[in-house]
Hints:
Number of strands: 10
Helix content: 25-40%
Distance between the termini: 37 Å
Strand content: 25-35%
Oligomer: single chain
Order of helices and strands: EEEHEEHEHHHHEHEHEEHH
Bound molecules: adenosine-5'-triphosphate
Number of helices: 10
Amino acid sequence: xxxxxxxSHFYGKHQAxxxxxxxxxxGEIVAILGANGAGKSTLLKAIAGLIRPAPGATLRFEGAxxxxxPAHMIVERGIALVPEGRGIFGExxxxxxxxxxxxxxxxxxxxxxxxxxxxxxxxxxxxRMTQAVRTMSGGEQQxxxxxxxxxxxxxxxxxxxxxxxxxxxxxxxxxxxxAQIRESGVSVLLVEQNARASLxxxxxxxxxxxxxxxxxxxxxxxxxxxxxxxxxxxxx
Length: 236
Ligand code: ATP
């Protein structure tokens, strides 16, 4: 459903991405592993239309060229980003944040059913609908951020470090939700520092190093690869 080739991006003179290629098939969870500063967030931002790729890139979604499509129209095509740091509105309530997610035209029909699905996915949000988001725990805020993205009725969900700063218990809840989101027919592209958890739920994994593709394989191949075990799974 998503095809990326020759994707480069420069911040001034600094090249953050160099000729990156990546594909996502419908129904997959694809994980991206890479060290800090490897360019993972930049890649998600380029897909979401928040930054422009350098000329010559191919970005196709559902067969259509999206390389020059602005961010608000990328959402209308069915791609939703849960940014690092969540990007939710702390002063607003859970209900208001979720409602904002349903603002895109593609999301207006079926809003009530989608809200019911989000609350089934994250039951603990149900009793907190009128609570200001800034008063919630990091894990609960992450649930609101994921819920808000789902309210836009996406077919592809992009997540940047969803377990960052969460307790092990709440991280598990977030990963369990991602598996359920995929079961519901939404494809997932996941950037995560928790390599173990992302290898456990992903179908395929891309390695990005210094802004370049550095490896690709099924999650099970990657788990058994000694270089990956050393670099990302803390094995000697
Ligand atoms: P992390 O896991 O630390 O978030 P990352 O793999 O997501 O890292 P990016 O945030 O994509 O990496 O950054 C890639 C490179 O681009 C880094 O060297 C970073 O310092 C640089 N960079 C990112 N954003 C900007 C910016 N707005 N201006 C200048 N340089 C930037």
